Amino acid sequence: MGAPTPLLEPREGIPPVIAGEAALAEVIAAFAAGSGPVAVDAERASGYRYGQRAYLVQLRRQGAGTALIDPVTCPDLSAFGGALSGVEWVLHAATQDLPCLREIGMIPTRLFDTELAGRLAGFPRVGLGAMVENVLGFVLEKGHSAVDWSTRPLPEPWLRYAALDVELLVDLRDALEKELDRQGKLEWALQEFDAIAAAPPAEPRKDPWRRTSGMHKVRRRRQLGVVRELWETRDRIAQRRDVSPGKVLSDAAIVEAALALPANVHALAALNGFGHRMGRRQLEQWQTAVDRAKALTESQLPQPGQPVTGPPPPRAWADKDPAAAARLSAARAGVTALAEQLVMPQENLVSPDTVRRICWEPPKVVDTESVGVALAGYGARPWQVEQVTPVLVAALADGQGV
Q: Region annotation Disordered: residue ranges (predicted)?
C-alpha cells in the first residue's frame, strides 16, 4: 500500500444538521429504505458538561447517505429502532456510545464493533484513525474529538469531522470481516458482538465518590468522610449547572482538603485548588461540607475500602494461599502464551478477573466440563470457553500437584 490518502470531505458534502420533527421523519424514512448495515456514531461533551449524554448523532447507510442529528432538539430517536429493526449497526468502540444512544431511544439488536474486531484480529493500534489508515489507506482528520459538542451552532469544521467519522465505517467493517474470516476468528467476533448487544444497561456504581483520583492517599475514616461530602456537594452543583464536575472542583483539591481537615475558610483557602480565583461564597460551601464530615458520628463514617466481592488482591495470595498463588501463576503464563499464539490481547481472550476467581476457588473436580461450566458462569462466551478451558485445566491441575 502506498502513502495513505487524506480524507478531507464527505462524499456528498456536509449534510445539514437535523433539528426538527419534519426533517427527522424524512431521514428516518430514507434510512428505512436504504440497504446494508448502518454506521452509527455519537459525540458527547465529556469534560465540559455533566453526564455522558449525546450532543450529535451521525448515521450513514447505503442509499440514504449521511445524517447528522441534534439530539438536544430531537431527544427521542426511538423511531430509528423501528426503521432499522434487524439491521446491523456498525460502531467503533460500541460500549462507549451505547449508553448515550440508549438514553435517546436508539438500541441496536445486532451490531459490529470495528474496534473490538481490530483487537481480535491482532491490530496493534485500534483507534478509528489508525484502523482506517492501516486497513483502508485513508487518513482521517482527528482534531475535534475532544471539543465541546454542546456548542450551538456547531462550527462547520466540527460537522465535517463528525460526518467523516461514519464515512468509511461500513467499508472498514467489510474489510475486517474478511480479515477475521481469513484468521478463523469471525465466529468468535460475532459471539462478542451479540454479547454486547444483549448486555443490560450498567447498574449505577455503588459509592462513586470512592473513585476520586488520589484516594489511595486517604487512610482515615474521618478523611474518607470529607471526600464523600465534598464529592457529593460537587456532584449536586455540577448537575445543577450542567458542567463537568472537574470544572467545579478538582479531585486533587478534594483529596487535599480531606488530608488537611481545615478548621475554617481561611485554612481551606490556603490549600491547593481552593485559593486561586475562588470567591468567599464558594469557599464557605466547601468548608460547610468539610464541617459536616467532621460532625459525623463514628457509625456514620464510611468504612475504609469497598466491600470485596471475590478473591483478595493477587499480591496477597502467596501469604494467604500459596497453592492458589501457584495456580494463578501457571494460569497467567498459559493465557499469555495462548493470547500470543492467537495474536490478540489477553483481556479479549478471557477476563483477568475470571481467571483470578477460578484460580482462587477452583471447581471441586478439575476437568474440562467443570472448568468450562465455571468459565461460562462468569460470562465467558462459547469460543472463549473452548480456547481457554485446556489452559486452565492444565494450570489448576499443575497448581494442585496432580
A: 297-316
